[in-house]
């Protein structure tokens, strides 16, 4: 039997965070984002050519010679907010808040705002 997204989160939120599988562990616990000195950081969830063109100009690269294919959604890693909201629609506000608390560092590190996700909840409790 494959659990629903809600059933998985009900289980996950009962588990201590320190014992998470890498697939659902807090991202900051297994990445080296803070160990690298970056010149530019782009958030591509809301991809705009302006940001990419700015970086290319700062790097003195000729954008006409660079192939930038349109970003495509991946089969398993869709980041579109509407899809996320559809999954969150089956959660309560309390579950979303507990999920936020568990992944708070990740939310802050990548500038995601919990207020954007709370209206997606189907029920308040």
TrEMBL record:
Membrane protein topology class: Single-pass type II membrane protein
Localization per Swiss-Prot or TrEMBL: Golgi apparatus membrane
Enzyme Commission number(s) of this protein: 2.8.2.-
One GO term describing the cellular component: Golgi membrane
Entries under InterPro entries matching the protein: Carb_sulfotrans_8-10, Sulfotransferase
Main location: Golgi
Gene Ontology biological-process annotations: carbohydrate biosynthetic process
Enzyme class, first EC level, given as a word: transferase
Keywords of the record: Carbohydrate metabolism, Glycoprotein, Golgi apparatus, Membrane, Signal-anchor, Transferase, Transmembrane, Transmembrane helix
One of the record's GO molecular function terms: sulfotransferase activity
UniProt similarity note: Belongs to the sulfotransferase 2 family.
The protein, known as: Carbohydrate sulfotransferase
Organism ancestry: Eukaryota, Metazoa, Ecdysozoa, Arthropoda, Hexapoda
């Amino acid at each position: 039997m494959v659990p629903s997204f809600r059933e998985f989160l009900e289980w996950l939120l009962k588990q201590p965070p320190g014992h998470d599988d890498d697939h659902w562990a807090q991202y900051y616990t297994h990445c080296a984002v803070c160990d690298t000195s970056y010149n530019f950081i782009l958030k591509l969830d809301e991809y705009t050519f302006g940001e990419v063109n700015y970086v290319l100009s700062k790097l003195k690269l000729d954008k006409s010679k660079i192939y930038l294919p349109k970003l495509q959604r991946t089969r398993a890693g869709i980041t579109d907010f509407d899809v996320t909201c559809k999954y969150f629609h089956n959660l309560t506000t309390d579950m979303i808040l507990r999920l936020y608390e568990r992944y708070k560092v990740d939310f802050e590190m990548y500038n995601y705002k919990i207020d954007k996700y709370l209206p997606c909840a189907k029920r308040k409790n």
